[in-house]
Amino acid sequence: MCDWDLINKVWAKVEEDLAGNGQTVLLRLFEEHPETKAHFPKFKDIPLGQLTSNADVKTHGNTVFKALGDVVKQKGKHASNLQALATTHINKHKIPPQNFTLITNVILKVFAEKFPGEMTAPAQEAFSKAFKAICSELEDLYKKGGFQS
Ligand code: HEM
Known about the structure:
By secondary structure, the protein is mainly α. It has helices at about 5-15, 20-30, 50, 55-75, 80-90, 100-115, 120-145. The chain is about 70% helix and about 0% strand.
């Protein structure tokens, strides 16, 4: 099974609760890297403890995971998906590119904890490789987009 097929197999499990899994990842990101929360106008002034029951976090978790699922399903032909993400995250949300490395590392960790049956060593390796490639492509798009931090 090639890398993207392995990834999509795990993703089918993630989709059983897309919003809940996205929510877990966002909360873990804010917990482990508190500076990331400051980028979200909706969440920056709310203490982390109160965000666990905040419906907007779950809604945004769904938004992020829907977009990431769209990337994964392209099986590598995701240039236009990444371009769209880079454009809004550079120009509208003004998110420094290294934040994508932070969130993808959190996703890897959360999936390994939540889905030990699906996240076999080869599946972890496949995600790790794919996320590294995606982050590096986003970084190139940021450079082309003239991102100023
Ligand atoms: C897996 C990586 C990510 C994906 C797939 C993703 C996807 C999205 C999508 C689909 C939206 C809404 C549409 C848009 O504006 O493009 C969005 C909004 C946003 N994203 Fe991301 N994102 C990712 C990572 C991040 C990171 C790491 C940060 C900051 C640390 C971030 C900050 C934001 C903010 C502030 C918004 C606007 C939220 C609002 O509506 O108030 N994103 N993201």
